[in-house]
Amino acid sequence: MMFSKACEYAIRAAIFLSANSGDGVLVGISDISSEIGAPKHFTAKILQVLTRKRLVSSQKGVNGGFYLDAVQKGRPVIDIVIAIDGDNIFKGCGLGLRECSEKEPCPLHHKFLAVRSGLTQLLTESTIGSLAHSLESGSSFLKKS
Amino acid sequence: MMFSKACEYAIRAAIFLSANSGDGVLVGISDISSEIGAPKHFTAKILQVLTRKRLVSSQKGVNGGFYLDAVQKGRPVIDIVIAIDGDNIFKGCGLGLRECSEKEPCPLHHKFLAVRSGLTQLLTESTIGSLAHSLESGSSFLKKS
DNA sequence: ATACTTAAAGACCTTTTTATCCTTTAACGA
DNA sequence: TCGTTAAAGGATAAAAAGGTCTTTAAGTAT
Fold first, then answer.
1. Fold of the CATH domain A5-86+127-136
2. Which nucleotide's C1' sits nearest to the alpha carbon of B5?
């Protein structure tokens, strides 16, 4: 809708991991991908990126898997978005004009700014952990995509 | 940033046409594409779609070209966006969840709604003509992409 | 009429995104 | 230390988006 598929998967995976890992509990890709309804190998790729960027932790070998530590659960969702999709959504002109700026704004410039800052704010003030927490009450909203 | 390239080109083309056509004045694709800084043939394809959907008017043959009539200049920008990108930006879950709804909302559901309605509103209350008008004052912001 | 200009249409190519597979690497347990 | 297990990583494939080119046909001026 607004993010790439990869980014949606990433957010869902992070939320799922926040709710279901930690304190020595790890989760494998098969579990993650089936729970968030994303293709297994694609999910693996995405988790790889997030792991490399230290937004997710991983453990190889027997009983290995992925998990989030306390710090990672406290990260804002916007970190995930930027790690996967970059920050193009948050900067640049809505009409794709290079020349557009405060000094020479395109006709929609200021209105776009408002929408965008709303988006930035919501993604910044929502942490992975807080989102995971808000679904604790049995509502397994992540099941089936 | 938020729209596809095709959609950005479409909006720019519409604004340009609104400012530079009408009352028997037509503009050819070469002029349009160079003024809005978009690939010529790709622009032609996009204009074709807009024409078929009656958001833009065209005239074949000698001295032919594209133009907007009064009604078309009064159309809200959202019509262009929907014609090219569809309405996926305006509906559907931000996390791509099919199950997400008012009853079983995803953790970001309500916050996304606010952002989205802001976007919808801005695109609905801005008409092609009004945007074209706001750049009348010499600022050829469309030049060069 | 007809010749010329220009949009319409559609075939085609390239790049990016999405998705899959397979090999390598590392961790751990026995 | 050896074997199992799971992530890391590279290589490939399919689909969608972005972009180019050629042909067709409509309209207009002459």
1. Arc Repressor Mutant, subunit A (1.10.10)
2. D18
Domains of chain B, by residue range, sit at 5-86+127-136
pLDDT at position A106 over 80: yes
A4 touches strand D (CB under 7 A): no
Residues A115, B1: Cα–Cα separation, whole Å: 12
What's the ipTM? 0.89
> Which two tokens mark B113?
């709604």
Chain A residue with Cα closest to B8: A95
Query: In which residue are the tokens 């776009």 written?
Result: A112
pTM for this model (two decimals): 0.91
